[in-house]
Inverse folding.
């Protein structure tokens, strides 16, 4: 039984090694052996302003007055935000704030409640 991966192009299981490359004799496709190895997915840890780890569904409190872009609204210090969702990007928290609506927050301006 071979422990080599199947061909990513034609799914044939007749793969063989040729130096640092893997080759499929059925379709002639060649690929790197390092590319065939499963890559461990990097887990991003998002922390609040004081270092607590945040998770989806947490409740956080705003620690600084935040102006809402494109509006004259301000999210005041002490505003509680329930049921946050963590996302990738500059604003790593998606949430819905009463009186303001849906918006993105940076984790550096909140603390876990």
């Amino acid at each position: 039984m071979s422990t080599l991966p199947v061909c990513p192009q034609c799914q044939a299981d007749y793969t063989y090694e040729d130096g640092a490359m893997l080759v499929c004799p059925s379709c002639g496709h060649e690929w790197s052996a390092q590319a065939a190895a499963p890559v461990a997915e990097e887990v991003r840890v998002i922390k609040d302003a004081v270092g607590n780890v945040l998770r989806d569904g947490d409740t956080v409190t705003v620690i600084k007055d935040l102006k809402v872009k494109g509006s004259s609204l301000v999210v005041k210090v002490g505003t509680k935000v329930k049921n946050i969702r963590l996302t990738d990007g500059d604003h790593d928290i998606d949430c819905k704030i009463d009186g303001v609506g849906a918006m993105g927050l940076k984790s550096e301006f909140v603390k876990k409640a």
Summary: The radius of gyration is 24 Å.
